[in-house]
Amino acid sequence: MALWSSRFSTPMAPATLSYSETTDIDRRMLAHELWASLAHLLMLCACGILDEGRGREIAAELLRMMDQAEHGDFKLDPALEDVHLNVESRLIERLGLDIGGRLHMGRSRNDQVVTDSRLYVRDALLAIGRLLIGLVSALLDRAEEQAGTLTLGYTHSQAAQPITFGFWLSAHASALLRDLKRLSDALETVNLCPLGSGALAGTSFPIDRRLTCALLGFDDILRHALDATSTRDYMLETASVCATCMAQLSRLAEEIVVWSSSATSGLKVSDAYTTGSSIMPQKRNPVVAELARAKSATAFGALMEILSVTKSVTMGYSSDLQQDKPPIWRALDVTSETIGAFTGLIATLEFETKNAEDACWRSFATATELANYLTSTQQRPFREAYDLVGRLVRHLESHAMTFRDANVSVAWLAANGVKMPLEEFVSSVDPRRAVERQTSTGGTSPEEVRATIVALRDQLGRNEARLTDVARRSELALAKTRNLATSFLKSELSGVELSREILAS
Amino acid sequence: MALWSSRFSTPMAPATLSYSETTDIDRRMLAHELWASLAHLLMLCACGILDEGRGREIAAELLRMMDQAEHGDFKLDPALEDVHLNVESRLIERLGLDIGGRLHMGRSRNDQVVTDSRLYVRDALLAIGRLLIGLVSALLDRAEEQAGTLTLGYTHSQAAQPITFGFWLSAHASALLRDLKRLSDALETVNLCPLGSGALAGTSFPIDRRLTCALLGFDDILRHALDATSTRDYMLETASVCATCMAQLSRLAEEIVVWSSSATSGLKVSDAYTTGSSIMPQKRNPVVAELARAKSATAFGALMEILSVTKSVTMGYSSDLQQDKPPIWRALDVTSETIGAFTGLIATLEFETKNAEDACWRSFATATELANYLTSTQQRPFREAYDLVGRLVRHLESHAMTFRDANVSVAWLAANGVKMPLEEFVSSVDPRRAVERQTSTGGTSPEEVRATIVALRDQLGRNEARLTDVARRSELALAKTRNLATSFLKSELSGVELSREILAS
Amino acid sequence: MALWSSRFSTPMAPATLSYSETTDIDRRMLAHELWASLAHLLMLCACGILDEGRGREIAAELLRMMDQAEHGDFKLDPALEDVHLNVESRLIERLGLDIGGRLHMGRSRNDQVVTDSRLYVRDALLAIGRLLIGLVSALLDRAEEQAGTLTLGYTHSQAAQPITFGFWLSAHASALLRDLKRLSDALETVNLCPLGSGALAGTSFPIDRRLTCALLGFDDILRHALDATSTRDYMLETASVCATCMAQLSRLAEEIVVWSSSATSGLKVSDAYTTGSSIMPQKRNPVVAELARAKSATAFGALMEILSVTKSVTMGYSSDLQQDKPPIWRALDVTSETIGAFTGLIATLEFETKNAEDACWRSFATATELANYLTSTQQRPFREAYDLVGRLVRHLESHAMTFRDANVSVAWLAANGVKMPLEEFVSSVDPRRAVERQTSTGGTSPEEVRATIVALRDQLGRNEARLTDVARRSELALAKTRNLATSFLKSELSGVELSREILAS
Amino acid sequence: MALWSSRFSTPMAPATLSYSETTDIDRRMLAHELWASLAHLLMLCACGILDEGRGREIAAELLRMMDQAEHGDFKLDPALEDVHLNVESRLIERLGLDIGGRLHMGRSRNDQVVTDSRLYVRDALLAIGRLLIGLVSALLDRAEEQAGTLTLGYTHSQAAQPITFGFWLSAHASALLRDLKRLSDALETVNLCPLGSGALAGTSFPIDRRLTCALLGFDDILRHALDATSTRDYMLETASVCATCMAQLSRLAEEIVVWSSSATSGLKVSDAYTTGSSIMPQKRNPVVAELARAKSATAFGALMEILSVTKSVTMGYSSDLQQDKPPIWRALDVTSETIGAFTGLIATLEFETKNAEDACWRSFATATELANYLTSTQQRPFREAYDLVGRLVRHLESHAMTFRDANVSVAWLAANGVKMPLEEFVSSVDPRRAVERQTSTGGTSPEEVRATIVALRDQLGRNEARLTDVARRSELALAKTRNLATSFLKSELSGVELSREILAS
Q1: Catalytic member of D156, D204, D319, D398
Q2: Nearest CA-CA distance, residue C334 and chain D, Å
Q3: CB neighbours of C115 closer than 8 A, spacing ≥ 6?
Q4: Are D280 and B154 within 8 A, CB to CB?
Q5: B31 with B149, same domain?
Q6: Alpha-carbon distance A131 to A137, whole Å?
Q7: How many whole angstroms separate alpha carbon A42 and alpha carbon B414?
Q8: Could you give the count of Cα atoms lying within 13 Å of B132 in the half-sphere of its Cβ?
Q9: How many distinct structural domains can be found in chain A?
Q10: In this complex, do D276 and C5 lie within 8 Å of one another by their Cβ atoms?
């Protein structure tokens, strides 16, 4: 029988339970449910709402359940709907209604579920943050190592200008650092305490929300009770962070898939991150990159799902809102798995430069440099220089030549009114020298790439510090909750002393 | 060791396997994988590609696996990546490489996976079709029963005109019949046989695709090998069917949630489809309807996910495409569970009419009827009549009166130049009589609602016949495959005879 | 002043009008609004609801407006909210309230707007259908022409097996034919007549819905009035058709972008479908393909938008539903523009085969063929043959050799226990001969590609006939409406005769 | 002829231009393009890349174009593709190639377009921020005014507990403040300067990116050239902000629509924010709220569109990326229009309390209070109290009574073992007194609502300051650019002095 069944005349249809129960989804929040329940209990005792005797018995039982949960010995029963009623029912079963039935004063499942899920999402974001730091580090390490390795850069997927592998790798590091920043911003939204909001309107019990907030390591209370129990923008912001990060990773994935395909790219995925075909014996398929490309869609779909779930739902908890968790679990999982898989893949990527120079010549990748030369050295308007070089390229291409045919080129230029010494022509259009000349801030010259890497490492350090601080406070708060509960349990602390201890920083 | 590992120098990273293996997802297709393998085997023997002796041993083993799978005794091993390599590895393990290693001629995982998933989706769509027929029937049964029960109809969520509960219920039946039609259309797209397409380009083995097509109960072969192995439009069409159907159900859900909330609506959800609150003892929450409303988003998100997965993937199988299955499983599950839950909820809905009449009067729901009267009986232009009635409503409302104040109304009309006998006024604005006058085809009058129900039942019958035909052919084909395999196994049939038997209809 | 303002005491806020008016969106439906109004008028006269004298004046004015609209002389006034009130207001302005104010009997904006938009979507789908037929034809024409042009086929974006350009082109034709089928299915959903449903519940005027249905060229009436005015599944189905088709085109686009990028692919986009760079003089960017790839997202977003718009909206018209039009216009536009642009791009694609053979050799693209040979000719189990060939590939690759090094290969095979005559080895692994051996139904051999093209052309013909039939009936119905209106206007027909003429087929 | 056409042999197909040109979309960025061009010019002169003589002529022309643009006299020509080539072509046309053709040194359309669109999005976010501040203020003002107005609160859309209108209004203010926070976070991502990144890899011209950054009022340069030109996460973050905010507004909209529908809610939308029906003279439809509910979907679809556009696009500019602008324009427009419309709607909402008390009694909305009383005063376990009250509710309901039947209630309690003085029972269950007892932090008691409003106003002030700072710096930078250009033009400043002035803060 459900704990809430006293008013009902017809029993629940089996379809109602199977359609609405969430134990499979809630499983991940069991540890958080127990932590929050223990914090709520200590607050009730500290405020004198629950007597210390009964409070100690409940504390002992909750600590026992925490141990069981850690050892995987606490299975949730689907017949009890969700994690909240599972814990409360077990308390009542163990301690009797007169004790176990007193924990639910001044709270409701509506504030419990957002407390638990905020704690869970906080953990998950911190874990993703750590993984992202690892991936950015790996990208920067490889970038530094390959700062001078020439390759062909593309725009519109067509040969554009010579760049270095270090430039390419650090570009992704630079982009992912903003994902890390967004993740930290989202943590600020997530890390607020809704506990104490009751069903929708607060409570008439004389609770003290500062105490539970402190014990759960939140930055602050989320004050407005209706807002705290009804809104899910922290889920939306988290899902947006995942989707945006995965969108970036899908682009890295595409590059790896496409470049693996080409004999001339110089990029090779390690065997460890490829698989074979069931019938084509020659194949090495970059499945990790392919899957990462596809799995971005999982994060996109999850975001769309949560937006649609919350659309047009009136304030005050509705069951609709329980449907925020399946997609957010999915988004968090796919993001952390993908970042993890990529880190190893990047660390083992193999780079060759041997075909790159040829590819640069063949594709006239230094045409812009020639135009720049005509502009800066010969004082021609850029548009005139551009036009001239365009016609030269067309001429050479139609004769199956490249800029390597320097004499022909210089002759053509002369015939078109431009005098250019052969050595200056060669210097202009040589891919390696062209790369070295891109020294503008953030450009692809090896020295500038190294300077950019230093700047990005500095940014990474600051982001890491921000995350570490949240993580440390969360861990301390959990330890404090268990310690205070243990002291209280042993009667080393009265309710009044509890209150003081909780607020002591 | 993976079956395809001969060419690789470095072993697969653990992350590659865990990130790419699909056994948990593929589990649902084990039965279909075995059926398709058996069909492929019979074809190989019928075409003389595989000798009968070895063929019989493989057939025996596949039939044994089918039994195991049916009894839940065939667990997939994640180390073997997917359902295909699990089955093939087991064959080789049991029968040795010289026998088990010969099944994979003329096929590839690329055509296998689309064969299996088309078979699975066919089953799932048929199951949803049956459930949908059940829900439409329940709606029509209740509609017939409530064809004369007055209630207030809304537009813009504001009181509009009096209608009947039967009219409302049959509107949803009418809409859902189009979902059933779309489901049948999607089945036509799904029910095509890709087996025999090889990895991407067909095969040089002299296979006969007509044989596997017939044994698997498909409508026809999907001829083009590259199209057959690369496209996923059948998944997109299926996901669209689910999303569109769930969008309709979310609207029914919203109506049930909102009307349950109102003291005057006359609609009550049975206790069996509600739950209580953890702290508010008076509550009856229509959770099934709330969840159905939210779970439509699961189907929307799944559709968006598959669209994004397939976007910009080059033809020729890519691993991206394996990510079509998690979302389609989710979409199919949520659609079938929701339709199932709704059928019981509709069958037990309670209807009261007692407050409806009051609500109609209070909201001037028959104002249009009065304007129609002035137009048709008194030959006034509709716009003039509309304007007059609008002013009358404003007058009555500002004096806290309704059309029930017939004398006042008639006096006001007279003062504004309209002579109208009291009894005709009363007849015009009485909600029950107004409903009875809506006799245009498809209108809300009880007799017209009953006629519409007859027409909808006819449509339902035709849709049902279409589905039943596909289901029957699928079942017959499975039986035929098992029977022919058994006969072949017992040497009752040669390869040549097999071919003839397979094509015999 | 709005036509509906008689009951209101405060004027509309300017923000209300600017936020809710839809004239800019409705503009496209002006011709359909006028057609539907004329049909409604003829029905009112045919049923004796409106007297012939006034009816003739309205008919004349509507015919005049149709001419003005065709000449772009009918501008919608935003202050009049929408296309319906624009037309009705103009009628009243021209003919006075006593005549112009009588058209709106037995109809409502709620059934008008779905009538107009179904007519518009029908036209748009027919136009897209015609464009799609053109694109499929272009693909098949080029496929036939290039049925024997060798190129390298890919799976996982990695070299897989040799194929022909004709095989690749016809794969897209094959896929797009299913989009054409879905488009025809959607037309069946769209082509139903909601006119006569009133605001939500039908009407008490003695209308005859068969007459308007016939005049507007619909397949049948959409009977249930609440369903007809409230549901938008025809928009969802249309948007799904667009999104699914665009998803396919994004894949073709990706292939063109990626292959244009490679020196060895043999594919070149005509200059006419590329643009240059503002600073890189050598560039030829395949912008049409890039944009097509991106614009698929427009159709995806539109579908998601309409799903979200309709989610959880109660039955009975709500203003939410007017938001179906901006996204569906967008989806229809982007789909037709993209198909149009692709048709020219495909017709002018340039194909070269010179590098393809090299690429096939270099990538061991015929390894599967060698394994098949060992299986079929030498009776080895496929798995053993696969393993052997995999090791051979690894051996050759590590020595920078290919299958072209036939003597080395044959020696290695011999050393590994496989005797194989040199000429048979060469025949096995030669890309051109390998392609010719893929003769299974739907395979890549030139002769089979030609057979597949014949089958696809047959399918195209059947789809085309289906579309043409709908188009023809729509055109005839419009002509009939105008002709009957003109005859009626000239008093050549009485109301009773009108009714008979309308139903005469 | 396109400026880039020198290399092309075939002219562009008309479809290529119409499919790819963006002048209609770019129009909004004309002012930003001119500002950025002027900043780039001053930098070129300050760095000695362009001579002062020619620089002054270009500066004069750009200032002239700015004036023209402000007066609407600068129309973009679609034949010139985009805003960048429109401006450059006009420069060349006016000043000749020798002068106008020199501006494009050291920049590319790839860094120009992100510079322009970041400037535009910065403006748009600032405008939305200001509107959001206005809406939050309006909500808080009305909340303060209605802090004591009783109404019925809901969970699961069913009667839950008595609350006040002030509590409800301030809940939305509390939620929207987090949208404002996210908007400020997004501004940090947007407000970085990509100009100077060249096509993808920087430039060999000796530019100084600090100068253009300062002149454009950006917070900092976005250093990495490939990241700066290729990523669109600032668009995704902006779209997420819009979608999340619109999701919240859709919930407010739903409440207004649903509550407007009910005779007992006490909420009435002003006539100014409603419209009428074309056939039902009694109607007042809350169209603004309905549309706001629907238009949230526009922001959702736009977000999904941009995610899909950017998915799997390789780094280095691709034309795909130009498709970020149509959806982001749409998302920004719909968000600002909706916030604007809501502000007036909230300011004019009418509240009545007369039916609220009845509704609270009828729905047993104070049942939780009675359970709390039995728990706190009578020391019963909460679960026992809950159970008892649930049974009492069932008893009263089955006799058509409420808690107002205090004597019956007290007698029933006594018969069930609970002694409770009549006056204490009445005090427990009286809705007004129950509301006053919800004094926990963030609860619904009027005094606590007022305290919460104070806290929210404080938060609003801090958010406003953050936005104002960005706005002020942007305005100053624009003024500085124009002033320096004017001084430079008049030869009051040399290039070297320019550089010093630009960096002076």
Answers
A1: D156
A2: 9
A3: C32, C36, C193, C194, C195, C216
A4: no
A5: no
A6: 10
A7: 75
A8: 33
A9: 3
A10: yes
D236·A227 Cβ contact <8 A: no
Can you tell me whether residue A115 is helix, strand or coil? helix
Chain A residues closer than 8 Å to D106 by CB: 440
In a shared domain, residues D267 and D331: yes
Q: CB D311 to CB B307 under 8 A?
A: no
Which chain C residues touch B300 with a CB distance below 8 Å? Answer: 304, 307-308, 311
Closest CA to C317 of A385, D285, A480, D396: D285
Taking Cα atoms as reference points, which of B117, B233, B249, B251 lies closest to residue B179?
B249
Which one-letter amino acid corresponds to residue C76? L
Between CA B482 and CA B117 the distance in angstroms is 20
Nearest to A281 among C281, C362, C390 (CB): C390
Selecting among B5, B277, B376, B491, the annotated active-site residue is B277
d(CA C450, CA C452): 5
Q: Which active-site residues of C does the annotation give?
A: 156, 277
* Interchain contact, A278 vs B109, CB within 8 Å: yes
Alpha-helical runs (H) found in D353-381 = 356-362, 367-376
Q: Which residue type, as a one-letter code, is found at position B32?
A: H
Residue B96, helix vs strand vs coil: coil
Reading the block at residue B177, the tokens are 């019949």
Of A54, A135, B145, the closest CA to residue D380 belongs to A54
Output the furthest CA–CA distance in chain D (Å, rounded).
103
Question: Which residues 6+ apart lie within 8 Å of B504 measured at CB?
Answer: none
Which residue among C202, C248, C439 sits closest to B443, beta carbon to beta carbon?
C202
How many beta-carbon contacts under 8 Å exist across A and C? 129
Q: Is D197 a catalytic residue?
A: no
Measured CA to CA, the distance from residue D465 to residue A234 in angstroms comes to: 23
Query: Nearest CA to CA, how far is D36 from chain C (Å)?
Result: 16
Residues of A in contact with C370 (CB under 8 A): 281
In this structure, what CATH number is given to the domain that contains residue D79? 1.10.275.10
**Is C73 in the same domain as C131?**
no
List chain C residues with CB under 8 Å of B189.
178, 181-182
Work out the minimum CA distance from B6 to partner chain D, whole angstroms: 31
In the block, which residue shows the tokens 């079942």? B475
Whether residue B87 is found in the same domain as residue B189: no
Q: Which residue in chain B is spatially nearest to D372 when comparing CA positions? A: B279
Residue with structure tokens 């989710």? B330
User: What's the domain range around B398?
Assistant: 367-429
Chains touching D (3+ CB pairs < 8 Å) = A, B, C
Contact D312, C290 (CB under 8 A): no
* C436/C423 Cα distance (integer angstroms): 17
Mutate to test the interface with B, among D267, D268, D283 (most CBs of B within 10 A): D283
Q: Let me know whether C399 and C486 are in one domain.
A: no
For β-strands D267-268 and D220-221, DSSP reports them as unpaired
In tens digits, chain B (505 residues) has pLDDT values of 567 777 777 788 999 999 999 999 999 999 999 999 999 999 999 999 999 999 999 999 999 999 999 999 999 999 999 999 999 999 999 999 999 999 999 999 999 999 999 999 999 999 999 999 999 999 999 999 999 999 999 999 999 999 999 999 999 999 999 999 999 999 999 999 999 999 999 999 999 999 999 999 999 999 999 999 999 999 999 999 999 999 999 999 999 999 988 767 889 999 999 998 888 888 889 999 999 999 999 999 999 999 999 999 999 999 999 999 999 999 999 999 999 999 999 999 999 887 889 999 999 999 999 999 999 888 888 889 999 999 999 999 999 999 999 999 999 999 999 999 999 999 999 999 999 999 999 999 999 999 999 999 999 999 999 999 999 999 999 999 999 999 999 999 998 899 999 999 7
Does residue B129 share a domain with residue B101?
A: no
> Which residues, at least 6 apart from D494, have a Cβ–Cβ distance to it below 8 Å?
D52
